[in-house]
Amino acid sequence: MAPARAYVNLMAVFLISGLWHGANWTFLVWGGLHGAYLVLSTWAKPARERLAQFTGLAAHPRLRHGLGVLVTFGLVAYAWIFFRANTLGDALYISQHLLSGWNDLNGRKIGALLLEFSQHYRPELAMAVFATGMMLVVEYFGRNRSLQDWVVAQPARVRWPAYIGLTLLILYLGIFNSTSFIYFQF
């Protein structure tokens, strides 16, 4: 298949997936951004390879992979602005002001805001750090073999406390009183 046709097909799939989430411009832009990310990534792959060779990143595959993960995370997080915004105008306003005010927010320094946030949202922050750490551990062990194989290889005295702990964590953090499924909101 010709590259141009493949790019058109990718964009169509992602635009349709945006519409599938809801008949709103925000969802269409969300899907379009993901399609554009994939098309641009595929199209720019030769240039990225040359850049990696030129900068020496090709000799450091783990660093290159880590940078790729960070870039991907940033792009996906940006696209989520459009997914969660009520209107396209709201999303554009957020986008325009996303990087403004880093030195001073209403007379308050960023460090003071982060300290205040960490004091008010300590349990949520701790859970986010813990969950991120767990995902990194799972990803690390899953590189060489499947997570299921790794878990099965552990002795029962390690597996069962983990099973019980994860079950208790689900019971503690779960939202069981809500009957609405997220897609019913669209």
TrEMBL record:
Sorted UniProt keywords: Membrane, Transmembrane, Transmembrane helix
Tagged with keyword Ubl conjugation: no
Spans traversing the lipid bilayer: 65-83, 125-142, 163-184
Signal peptide feature range: none
Keyword presence, Transmembrane helix: yes
Protein name in the entry: MBOAT family protein
Species of provenance: Hymenobacter humi
